[in-house]
């Protein structure tokens, strides 16, 4: 594995850790769903600017799981309603666009 790929993997892991910490904070604070979605979208899209496409999509999927499991439902339960799938599509699309069109894009 190349050094650049290892650095990207570490960045993706750090970004996932940030999403997990944000989930814990948002759960304790008890913010509304719109705030949850906005914060997770902002964090995952911002991180995607520094990631390759596969890592950006994986991070978007992680963000969706956290939003669906803790903002929409409780206890980490994932559901696949139409709204949940729209949130997944939003996170994946933004992650893809951010990763592809960021300065110094890496595919």
Approximate helicity band:
over 70%
- End-to-end Cα distance, whole Å, is 15 Å
Q: What is the average per-residue confidence, as pLDDT, rounded to a whole number?
A: 91
Residue windows where pLDDT falls under 50 for at least 5 positions: none
Q: How much of the residues is beta strand, in percent?
A: under 5%
Instruction: Identify the overall geometry.
Output: globular
Order of helices and strands: HHHH
Look at the helices and sheets and give the structural class: mainly alpha
Q: List how many beta strands DSSP finds.
A: 0
Radius of gyration: 14 Å
Largest sheet: none
Number of helical regions: 4
Task: Furnish the topology, listing elements before pairings.
Layout: H1 3-29, H2 33-48, H3 53-72, H4 82-100
Please tell me about this protein's structure.
- By secondary structure, this protein is mainly alpha-helical.
- The chain is 77% helix and 0% strand.
- It is built from 4 helices and no strands.
- The protein has helices spanning 3-29, 33-48, 53-72, 82-100.
- α3 packs antiparallel against α4.
- The relative contact order is 0.16.
């Amino acid at each position: 594995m190349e050094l650049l790929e290892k650095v990207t993997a570490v960045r993706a892991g750090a970004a996932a850790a940030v999403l997990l910490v944000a989930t814990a904070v948002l759960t304790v604070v008890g913010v509304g769903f719109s705030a949850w979605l906005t914060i997770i979208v902002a964090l995952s899209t911002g991180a995607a600017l520094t990631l390759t496409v596969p890592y950006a999509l994986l991070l978007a999927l992680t963000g969706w799981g956290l939003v669906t499991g803790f903002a929409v439902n409780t206890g980490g339960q994932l559901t696949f309603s139409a709204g949940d799938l729209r949130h997944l599509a939003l996170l994946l699309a933004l992650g893809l666009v951010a990763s592809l069109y960021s300065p110094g894009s890496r595919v």
